User: Which sequence fits this backbone?
């Protein structure tokens, strides 16, 4: 690189460290002693499914939670698509965030077309820095959906770059690398999910189910693989379908508890584990700061 081309970078690096705003997001006050959590999902519903309970628990304790959808979800329906669907899904996920007590961002990438590009890496790096995250969460990179896989790749790619001063020098680099973690999933290759932390969400499970219920396009109507018969036009039929969706999700979160019963007993000693019905589980990423159990308890203060 020619020395002259370095001058703009040097000027930015030497400028005062002012953390920029995130459009549409109320930035937390600096130094308030609260955790800053940022979670990435491929579509407007992924974060809410994977950690809506933990998000509600953090928010209830006054911590700051930002859920980011890396695509706008504009093909995620069997009947609707394009701009109107993106607007509808943004409206639905905003309503879900209001129920959970968190904030959200939906990036304007097309659903089904996400790629791990340099520009997307820059976008995620800037978001993590601007949020000054203590904890970053995202999907693992083995998944049935390419958008999920590439969201995981982008989060991994940002895990080192957030500390590199001359990468995206318009936003000051972080002095300490956050902890990075994965959501749990059911995929076995190359390795099954671990539950390095498992969280009882019983105290907020109804709130999480309420939040998922307002995303009608994805669950009651079935999303991209739905059909007209799933969500009837009459109120009684719609109520029955909503109950079905709610029960299905409840069983899903109960299955997490059963799947990681051994790990649950380590985090909830004595007879506490036996009382847990619904849970969410998270795996430590091999990138970023590697937390010990004391640090994990700081990051998940609602776990005994």
Assistant:
């Amino acid at each position: 690189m020619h020395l002259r081309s370095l001058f703009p970078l040097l000027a930015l690096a030497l400028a005062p460290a002012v953390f920029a705003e995130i459009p549409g997001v109320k930035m937390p006050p600096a130094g308030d002693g609260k955790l800053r959590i940022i979670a990435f999902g491929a579509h407007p519903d992924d974060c809410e499914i994977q950690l809506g309970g933990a998000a509600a628990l953090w928010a209830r304790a006054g911590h700051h939670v930002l859920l980011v959808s890396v695509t706008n979800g504009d093909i995620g329906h069997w009947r609707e698509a394009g701009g109107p669907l993106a607007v509808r899904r943004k409206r639905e996920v905003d309503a879900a965030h209001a129920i959970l007590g968190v904030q959200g961002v939906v990036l304007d990438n097309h659903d089904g077309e996400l790629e791990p590009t340099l520009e997307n890496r820059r976008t995620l790096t800037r978001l993590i820095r601007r949020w000054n995250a203590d904890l970053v969460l995202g999907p693992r990179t083995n998944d049935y959906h390419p958008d999920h896989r590439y969201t995981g790749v982008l989060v991994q790619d940002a895990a080192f770059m957030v500390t590199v001063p001359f990468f995206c020098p318009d936003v000051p680099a972080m002095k300490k690398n956050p902890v990075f973690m994965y959501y749990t999933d059911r995929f076995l290759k190359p390795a099954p999910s671990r539950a390095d932390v498992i969280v009882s969400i019983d105290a907020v499970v109804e709130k999480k189910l309420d939040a998922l219920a307002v995303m009608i396009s994805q669950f009651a109507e079935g999303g991209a693989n739905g059909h007209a018969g799933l969500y009837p036009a009459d109120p009684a039929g719609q109520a029955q379908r909503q109950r079905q969706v709610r029960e299905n999700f409840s069983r899903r979160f109960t299955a997490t508890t059963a799947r990681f019963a051994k790990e649950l007993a380590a985090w909830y000693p004595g007879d506490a584990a036996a009382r847990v019905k619904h849970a969410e589980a998270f795996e430590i990423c091999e990138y970023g700061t590697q937390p010990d159990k004391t640090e994990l308890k700081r990051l998940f203060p609602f776990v005994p």
Q: What stands out?
A: Residues 235-259 form the longest helix (25 residues). The beta strands are 36-41, 64-69, 103-106, 135-138, 179-183, 197-200, 279-288.
